[in-house]
Structures are given as C-alpha cells and as structure tokens.
Specification:
With 290 residues, this protein is mainly α. It contains 14 helices and 2 strands; from the N terminus they run ααββαααααααααααα. β1 and β2 form a beta hairpin.
Length: 290
C-alpha cells in the first residue's frame, strides 16, 4: 500500500477520474456562474458586459433583505429542530428501544426517501382550509376552535414549512447521531451509573461531550442544507403568500429563469455561497474544531 501511495503515477491514476468528474460537475459550473456575475441578460436575449453593476444592484435591491432574513431564520429554526429531534430519537433508539429500534428507525427514516413534491402535497392536504377542510383544521374545529388558513399569512405558512421539513428529515439525523452514540463505550456509562449518575447527568456529562463530533457534523450538514433549501418551499408555498417564504435560492431561481437575468441571479448565488462558507466556519470556530 505504501509503495502504491508513494508512486505519483498511481496516485494520479486513482484520483484522476474522480477529480475530473468533480471538476466537470462542481468546479466548472461554479466558475461559470462566477463569470456570469459580470454580465447581464440570458442565453435567449444575449449577454451584455455589466462589470460590477450586479454587485451594486445587490446592495440596493429592496427584495434582498427579506429573502436573506427568511433564509437565515429558516436555517436556524429548521437546523435546531432537525438536530434536536434527531438527537432525542437517537437517545431513544440507544437507551429505550434496543429491541425494537430497527423497526422504529425504519419507520422514522421513511419520510427521508419520499419525493419532496409528494410530501409537500401531503402537507397541503393536511393543512387545507378551502375548498375542503384538512385534518388539522378539522381537529381544531372539533375542539371548538376556528379553522386557520395556514397558507394565507406569513407566520402560519412558516410554521407549516418548518413542520414539514423537520418531519421529513429528522429520520436522517436520528440515524446519523445514532451511529455516533454507538461509539460511546458501555462500560463508561455503566461505571457512571454505578457511581450514582442519573439519566440527566449521564447525558450532560458523558453522552453529549463524547458525541460532540457527530453533533458538529450534523449541525454543518443541516445548516448548509437549510440555507440552500429550495424544492420543499417551492413545492409547498411557492414562496408565498406574496414573497413571505421566499429564500435566496428561490429568489435566485426567479431572477435567473423567470426574469431572464442570469448575471444578477448568479450574484445572488454567490452571496448564498459566501453565507454558507461563513456559517460553516463559524460553527467550527464555535465548537473549537479545525
């Protein structure tokens, strides 16, 4: 193995195909998009050199702050929900459902493999107000309440989006964190229990510190995924009501393909890329990891 890894030709032969595919799929489109930021127009209307005008437009765009604020708010809320619920489920798998854990993990993981559009349609029906009353409003009315038009106000629409995305992805983070909890030695937990440590003390002093690496990985996965969320929001609310649930990804899509301005759309994409990078660095710095 050492002789193979020490041979530059062998290393190039082994890594070359993967690097080529990665470059064609990831690096080339990124550089192409970066080049678009200096132009305005589209492939249909043609491109015109704009210099740094798109960056000036970005600073003066009144629609950008609401989209940016929704993106950050959505990312923080969904990341907190995904990781918290996933961690609680992982603790449940390890300490309370050892025998039936595989069945429960399969059922909880099932929403992860469902098509996003199907999940969005399911939640639309669940929270429907008119022309038919969905199960959620039916339950509210059964207890004497008044039905809510969940997709008519920004606050209610955000709640539905948050519930859908946490439910859809909690199974993935539960399995990811479950794998990290399995690495904690049983004898360490048994020794702490013999010394009189209760459940909360075990979790706070042993389980959380030892599972911190996988927790940080989960936070990075989640925050980057939620900052780039597009399909679930587009399928559920379309960015509405109005533009109340429009993240940067959807705003970029609308700018590029609905309004035909690839240059400004690429500038929004660059803003999102920088935001993801800064958040990732902040997470690692906050946890004291390189």
């Amino acid at each position: 193995m050492h002789s193979v890894l020490g041979d530059r030709k062998s290393v190039a032969l082994l890594l070359g195909p993967a690097l080529l595919v990665y470059s064609l799929i990831m690096l080339v489109p990124m550089l192409w998009s970066l080049g678009y930021t200096f132009f305005t127009g589209s492939v249909i209307t043609g491109f015109t050199w704009a210099g740094t005008a798109n960056f000036g437009k970005l600073l003066d765009d009144p629609a950008l702050p609401p989209a940016l604020w929704f993106t950050v708010k959505y990312a923080l809320v969904i990341t907190f929900g995904q990781v918290l619920v996933g961690y609680l489920l992982a603790l449940l798998y390890v300490f309370f459902l050892r025998r039936a854990g595989s069945v429960v993990r399969t059922l909880v993981f099932f929403p992860v493999v469902l098509p996003t559009v199907a999940v969005a349609l399911l939640f639309q029906k669940f929270f429907e107000y008119a022309p038919q009353t969905g199960p959620v409003n039916a339950a509210i009315e059964a207890f004497g309440g008044t039905g809510v038009d969940w997709f008519a106000t920004p606050g209610h629409a955000f709640v539905v989006v948050a519930l859908m995305d946490v439910w859809r992805s909690m199974g993935f983070y539960a399995v990811l964190l479950y794998a990290g909890l399995l690495d904690i030695p049983d004898d360490m937990l048994e020794a702490a229990a013999i010394d009189g440590a209760g459940t909360w003390r075990l979790i706070r002093s042993i389980i959380v510190p030892l599972s911190l690496p996988v927790l940080v990985s989960s936070l990075v996965f989640s925050i980057n995924g939620t900052l780039k969320a597009f399909d679930s929001i587009y399928a559920l609310t379309g960015g509405g009501p109005g533009s109340a649930t429009t993240p940067l990804t959807l705003y970029m899509y609308q700018t590029s393909f609905a309004y035909g301005d690839y240059g400004y759309g690429s500038t929004i994409a660059l803003t999102l890329t920088v935001l993801c990078l800064l958040v990732t660095v902040a997470v690692f710095r906050a946890t004291g990891r390189d």
